[in-house]
Amino acid sequence: MITTRTISSIQPARSIPAAPAQHTLAQSIVLHLLPGILIAVVFFCTAPLARQWQLPPFMAQCFADLIVLVPSVLGFLFYQGYRTNGRLSLDGVVLYRDRLPWWQFAGIVPLILLAVGGVTVLLVPLGTGIFTRFFAWLPATFLTTTDLHAYSRSTLIGSYLVFFLMIVLIAPILEELYFRGYLLPRLARYGIWAPVIHSVLFALYHVWSPWLAIGRMLSVLLLVVVVQWKRNIYLGMAAHIIGNSVDALVGAAFILEQF
């Protein structure tokens, strides 16, 4: 649970005032998409193994995040920090960490969730239509949505514990640090178009589920605009974690109902 004390402790006393060096469009494209391409490679390689081991397909996503996202994002950010500060630090590397009054934090996060959730629900038919028309040929092995009835209770409990750790907690924190804290400020040269460019590239970063790209782009755009406006990535972290927890809650409800 995020409390006033938690918010005060995770936000630094001051932010780095100096503007970061700006990336070219080509640099931004590579830095946005390369992690997603690597995650997709690992996902498509491990999905058959997850099936062989009788694990839900979303476990391949967890494996991919553990193998690629965690070391690549942390390694890259701390490397940039070492180059900038001469030590392993994120100061001057991960930006948008300005202080925010607790009442604004508590009020803005639910608004982000309502807006993002509303857009996501409205665009579900679009994603379904794109999948049906262009991606229905994909084997079920590579789809993270699956029939949970096919798995034992112990398998589901263990799988959703891993899901909660990786997809609900670790991945959102790392993605907000890297995408909103590092990459977004370095698109500032594009002015009002920076959130749009960033949202498009962040949607395309999810290489393993391209049929959801339009929905992701439009829904995350709202989050990006608020994070940039308030210069606070913790808003994005909180909304991202709560949003990703929905699937974990659905899984927990299924386990409780069926067993």
Q: What would you say this structure looks like, in words?
A:
The protein has 259 residues and is mostly helical. The protein has one domain (24-258). 71% of the residues lie in helices and 0% in strands. The protein has nine helices and no strands. Helix 8 (213-230) packs across helix 9 (233-258). The longest helix has 31 residues, at 153-183. The chain is globular and about 55 Å long.
Low-confidence stretches: 1-17
Number of domains: 1
Radius of gyration: 19 Å
What are the secondary-structure elements, in order, as H or E? HHHHHHHHH
Question: Strand content of the residues, in percent?
Answer: under 5%
- Please give the largest β-sheet: none
Query: How many E strands?
Result: 0
> Tally the helices: what do you get?
9
Structural class: mainly alpha
Mean pLDDT: 91
**Shape summary:** globular
Helical amount among residues, as a percent range? over 70%
Distance between the termini: 28 Å
Give structural attributes.
9 helices, 259 residues
List the helices and strands and how they pair.
Layout: H1 4-10, H2 25-52, H3 58-85, H4 102-122, H5 124-135, H6 153-183, H7 194-205, H8 213-230, H9 233-258
